[in-house]
Automatic annotation (TrEMBL):
A single GO molecular function term of this UniProt record: DNA binding
Domain HTH cro/C1-type: 16-59
Protein name: DNA-binding protein
InterPro entries in UniProt: Cro/C1-type_HTH, Lambda_DNA-bd_dom_sf
Amino acid sequence: MTKLGEYLAAKSVNKSEVARRTGLSKARVNQLTLNDTTKLRADELYLIALAIDVKPIELLEYVCEGVKLVEVR
């Protein structure tokens, strides 16, 4: 499960409802929540955040937790 999938599961969000409200296909929502190699686009994250009534930055910070800049020497 992806970080997005974990977030939606923790909030008890219905993925079919997310698909309907965002215009994303159910297959795409399933990819985004189940497949770690699937890339989440910024516009998709924004639409999902709006659909589940959270601030986009909250969702972004959760799914990007642990992402760090490479230290340059």
